[in-house]
Design goal:
The chain is of the alpha+beta class and 370 residues long. The protein contains ten helices and 14 strands. The strands form three sheets. It has an eight-stranded mixed sheet. A four-stranded antiparallel sheet has the order 9-10-11-12, covered by helices on one side. It has a two-stranded antiparallel sheet with strand order 5-6.
């Protein structure tokens, strides 16, 4: 072998060696660490531990996708914050439904379910959509039928004594606050009609109901502010990078408390609640999904990191883009790049996210101020 060929071979070997260091190590400074890594919205320590047990097992570890299922499933069983899994967040009819998403950052395949009734395993149903269909999203009762046909338990009542009590108390408070705007109610709890509908076309009883209720909803969404907080408007959004450097993300939620039946938030929407790509990293989101899904913030974060932004800058940029249009919105993001460096950004509340990597003895919770 001549000297020029030997030099070329040495250069290729060094390039491959450096690539392996990047995949297996990562920057240990400022939110960094070595793979595997698990990141989740909020102090959902048990969910992160469940994912960690999968992804850190053995010499090669489990897959990022399997770890996402384990972590989100743990939160569904624990009913994290009352906003994940069955038994929480009743809609206007008192029913709990589930939304979930899973994404494989290696293949870019996605499975999701939305407004799913009578099946308690949201993330497992989403994985079945990804694995056994050519679709991305199944909704409503058809999602339920699919999940049961694929072997998940059901039909199951997703309500709980706590969710029914919450709903009953809300009804006694004349169904306030709620997510309607620019409408008038016939009676204390609807049905609702647009303000500009000619009352001549309504019955005398309905008109009397409007007048007696004193409950005309003005054309503003300021009344929604009291609805949105961590314990009634939240999601677990999780990202995992396994020992092979593969990325997966997932979400699970029972949606917004007292939502209008049929409402789907950002939880099962790719690029909004979560997004991941092996080549770049991942993002997870939580907050007012009806606002955040208009901006696909997690897609923006990943693409910003692809262009060279650090995770913190990418997350702050995405949050700022939303807050410029909606100064009163409530939400947060975490970002993790394919070196394992992670950061968060938030608006309207103090945000916490949980993380574990191989340099940590247990889950750590990071607090992010607005």
């Amino acid at each position: 072998m001549d000297r020029s060929n030997a030099g070329l071979l040495l250069g290729l070997l060094l390039l491959q060696f450096n690539r392996c260091l990047a995949l297996g190590g990562g920057d240990a400074a400022e939110g960094g660490g070595v793979f595997p890594v698990v990141v989740s919205t909020w102090p959902f320590r048990e969910a992160v531990r469940a994912a960690w047990e999968v992804v850190a097992a053995g010499s090669t570890g489990g897959s990022a996708v399997d770890a996402i299922v384990a972590g989100c499933s743990a939160c569904e069983v624990l009913r994290c914050d009352g906003t994940v899994g069955p038994g929480g967040s009743p809609d206007e009819n008192g029913e709990t439904t589930l939304d979930a998403l899973i994404m494989n950052g290696t293949t870019m395949e996605i499975g999701a379910v939305a407004s799913m009734r009578y099946v308690k395993d949201g993330i497992k149903a989403a994985k079945l959509v990804m694995e056994h269909t050519g679709h991305t999203l199944l909704v409503g009762e058809k999602a339920t039928a699919f999940a049961i046909s694929m072997g998940l338990a059901g039909p199951t009542n997703l309500s709980s004594p706590e969710s029914i009590e919450k709903w009953s108390n809300w009804r006694q408070n004349h169904c306030q606050p709620n997510f309607w705007k620019n409408v008038v109610p016939a009676g204390n709890c609807g049905p609702y009609y647009p303000i500009n509908v000619n009352p001549v076309h309504r019955t005398i009883g309905e008109i009397q109901g409007w007048l007696q209720s004193g409950n005309l909803l003005e054309p503003t969404d300021s009344h929604l502010k009291s609805v949105i907080n961590r314990h009634n408007h939240d999601t677990i959004s999780m990202a995992v990078i396994d020992k092979m450097g593969h990325v997966a993300v997932g979400t699970s939620t029972n949606g917004a408390t007292f939502k209008i039946p049929g409402r789907v938030g950002d939880g099962p929407i790719p690029g909004s609640s979560a997004y991941g790509d092996d080549e770049v990293g991942a993002c997870g989101a939580t907050g007012d999904g009806d606002i955040m899904m208009r901006f696909l913030p997690c897609y923006q974060v990943v693409e910003s990191m692809r262009r060279g932004m650090e995770p913190r800058d990418a997350a702050m940029d995405a949050i700022s883009r939303i807050s410029r249009k909606y100064p009163d919105f409530v939400g947060a993001l975490f970002a993790v790049n394919n070196k394992g460096v992670h950061a968060g950004a938030c608006h309207g509340w103090t945000f916490q996210y949980s993380v574990r990597n191989s340099s940590m003895e247990d889950v750590e919770v990071i607090t992010v101020t607005p």
